[in-house]
C-alpha cells in the first residue's frame, strides 16, 4: 500500500521472491539491541518486556535501528517467549541469561495444562506494536515478523532456562514420544496462529527462529521436528516470504529446505557457495558473515563481506546478514560499513 510519490525499498522482498533486486539487501538479527546507544538509553530503566509491551517504544527501537544502519528491512521488536505466556507459561527474561521459566513443562499433565493462544487477548500488544511500527516506517522498508519454532520454544519451556545440550528436552523426546508429539502439536498450532495474525496486521515477511534445533541428528530431526516446521511453513504459503533460521546446523540443510521456506538462513560454518550448491534453486540464502567479524571490523571483515558476495554472484535470492545475532560490543559503524559495502558492490554489478 504505497502512498503516491513514495516508493518502498523493495530489495529485501525482491530477493525473497527471487527477483533481481537493485542491490543485495541487508538486515541483521538483533539489529535493535544493546550494541546501539539509542537502545541502551531506552533500556536504562526498562526491561525487554517493558519495551515489547509498549507499542510506542517497541516501534521506536525498530525504526531507530533501521535509520542508524540504513538496512533494507526492519524486524518487529518482540521476543520468541511472548506468546508462551498466553499458553499459561510464566517466565522472566533475565539480564545476561535469557528466558527463565517459573514452572517448566516436563510431564504429560504439564503439557495437557497448556492453553491455546488467543492472539488478540494474549499478545494484542505485539499487533499494536506492528501497526505503530508500520506507521513510523511509512513504507520506507518492509517489516519482518517472527516467531520461535516449536523445537526451540519446547527447549526453553522444558529446560526452564537456556541450556547448551537441551538434555531434558531430548529426554522427553526419546523417553515419552507421545507427550513430546502433543507438546509439539500444541506449539505448532500456536506458532501458526501467531504468525498468521502478524501477517494479517501487516508484516511483509516472517522468520521462524529454530535457534537450537542444530543439536539434533538428521534422523531425529526427521522423526521429531520436520513435520511440525513443514506444517507452519505450509500454513503461510503464498501469503508472505518465509525465512527459516538455525545456526550450527549444516547437517540439517536439506531437511530445512524440505520444510519449504522461501529463504534459508545459514551461518559461517557453511561456505555460502556450498549453500547455493545444496539449495539447487529451491530456496534463497540468507547470511552468512560471522558476527565476530562484524565485531572485529577492519580488513578481515571487509575481505569476508567481499568473499560472500563473490560466491553469490549469479544466484537469485541472496539476503545478506550475519550467521547469528549482532554481538553486544559491535561498533555500529562496522554494521554501517557492511551495509554500504554490500549496497555499493552489488549495485555496480546490476
Ligand atoms: O532486533 C531484533 O532482532 C528484534 C528483537 C528480538 C528479541 N528477541 C528481543 C530481545 C528477537 C528477534 C528475539 C528473538 C529471540 N529471543 C531468539 C531467537 C534468536 C536467536 O538469537 O537465536 C531467542 C533464542 C530469544 C530468547 C532470548 N531473549 C535470549 C537468548 C535473550 C538474551 C539474554 C541476554 O541478556 O543476553 C533474550 C533477551 C532479548 N530479547 C534481548 C533482545 C534485544 C537482549 C537483552 C536486552 O536487550 O536486555
Briefly note the structural class of the backbone.
alpha/beta
Provide the helix percentage. 40-55%
Averaged pLDDT:
96
The end-to-end distance, rounded to whole angstroms, is 27 Å
Ligands in the model, by name, code or SMILES, are: coproporphyrinogen III
Task: Offer a quick outline of the entry.
By secondary structure, this protein is of the alpha/beta class. The chain has 17 helices and nine strands.
3D architecture notes:
- The chain is an alpha/beta fold and 350 residues long.
- Helices cover 50% and strands 11% of the residues.
- It is built from 17 helices and 9 strands.
- It has helices at 11-16, 37-43, 48-52, 55-69, 82-86, 108-112, 119-137, 150-159, 167-175, 177-200, 218-224, 226-235, 253-258, 272-279, 291-296, 298-311, 332-349; strands at 74-75, 91-94, 98-101, 143-148, 205-209, 242-245, 263-265, 284-289, 318-322.
- It has a 7-stranded parallel beta sheet with strand order 1-4-5-6-7-8-9.
- Strand 7, helix 14 and strand 8 (284-289) form a beta-alpha-beta unit.
- Helix 10 (177-200) runs parallel beside helix 12 (226-235).
- The chain is globular, with a radius of gyration of 19 Å.
- Coproporphyrinogen III (CP3) binds next to strand 3.
- Coproporphyrinogen III binds next to strand 3.
Mind sketching the topology for me?
Blueprint: H1 11-16, H2 37-43, H3 48-52, H4 55-69, E1 74-75, H5 82-86, E2 91-94, E3 98-101, H6 108-112, H7 119-137, E4 143-148, H8 150-159, H9 167-175, H10 177-200, E5 205-209, H11 218-224, H12 226-235, E6 242-245, H13 253-258, E7 263-265, H14 272-279, E8 284-289, H15 291-296, H16 298-311, E9 318-322, H17 332-349
Parallel strand pairs: 1-4, 4-5, 5-6, 6-7, 7-8, 8-9
Antiparallel strand pairs: 2-3
Helix pairs in contact: 4-7, 7-10, 8-10, 9-10, 10-12, 16-17
Bound molecules: coproporphyrinogen III.
Coproporphyrinogen III is lined by residues 29-34, 43, 48, 75, 77, 79-80, 93, 95-96, 98-99, 146, 162, 209, 211, 325.
Amino acid at each position: 500500500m504505497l502512498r503516491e510519490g513514495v516508493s518502498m525499498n523493495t530489495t529485501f522482498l525482491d530477493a525473497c521472491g527471487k527477483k533481481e533486486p537493485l542491490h543485495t539487501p541487508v538486515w541483521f538479527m538483533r539489529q535493535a539491541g544493546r550494541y546501539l546507544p539509542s537502545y541502551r538509553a531506552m533500556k536504562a530503566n526498562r526491561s525487554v518486556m517493558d519495551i515489547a509491551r509498549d507499542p510506542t517504544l517497541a516501534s521506536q527501537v525498530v525504526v531507530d535501528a533501521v535509520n542508524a544502519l540504513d538496512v533494507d528491512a526492519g524486524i518487529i521488536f518482540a521476543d520468541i517467549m511472548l506468546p508462551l505466556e498466553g499458553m499459561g507459561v510464566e517466565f522472566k527474561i533475565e539480564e545476561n541469561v535469557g528466558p527463565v521459566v517459573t514452572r517448566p513443562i516436563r510431564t504429560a499433565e504439564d503439557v495437557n495444562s497448556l492453553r491455546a493462544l488467543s492472539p488478540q487477548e494474549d499478545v494484542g500488544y505485539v499487533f499494536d506494536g506492528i501497526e505503530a511500527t508500520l506507521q513510523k516506517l511509512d513504507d520506507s522498508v518492509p517489516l519482518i515478523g517472527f516467531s520461535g519454532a516449536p523445537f526451540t520454544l519446547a527447549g526453553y519451556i522444558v529446560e526452564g532456562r537456556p541450556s547448551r545440550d537441551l538434555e531434558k528436552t531430548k529426554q522427553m523426546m526419546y523417553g515419552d514420544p507421545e507427550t513430546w508429539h502433543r507438546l509439539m502439536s500444541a506449539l505448532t498450532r500456536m506458532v501458526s496462529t501467531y504468525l498468521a495474525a502478524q501477517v494479517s496486521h501487516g508484516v511483509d515477511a516472517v522468520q521462524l527462529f529454530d535457534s537450537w534445533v542444530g543439536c539434533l541428528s538428521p534422523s531425529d530431526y526427521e522423526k521429531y521436528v520436520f513435520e511440525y516446521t513443514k506444517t507452519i511453513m505450509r500454513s503461510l504459503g503464498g501469503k508472505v516470504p518465509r525465512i527459516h533460521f538455525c545456526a550450527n546446523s549444516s547437517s540439517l540443510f536439506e531437511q530445512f529446505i524440505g520444510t519449504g521456506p522461501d529463504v534459508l538462513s545459514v551461518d559461517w560454518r557453511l561456505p555460502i557457495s556450498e549453500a547455493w550448491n545444496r539449495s539447487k534453486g529451491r530456496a534463497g540464502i540468507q547470511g552468512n558473515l560471522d558476527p565476530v567479524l562484524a565485531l572485529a571490523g577492519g580488513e578481515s571483515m571487509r575481505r569476508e563481506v567481499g568473499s560472500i558476495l563473490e560466491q553469490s554472484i549469479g544466484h537469485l535470492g541472496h539476503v545478506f546478514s550475519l550467521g547469528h545475532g549482532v554481538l553486544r560490543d559491535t561498533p555500529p559503524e562496522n554494521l554501517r560499513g557492511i551495509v554500504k559495502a554490500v549496497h555499493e558492490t552489488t549495485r555496480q554489478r546490476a
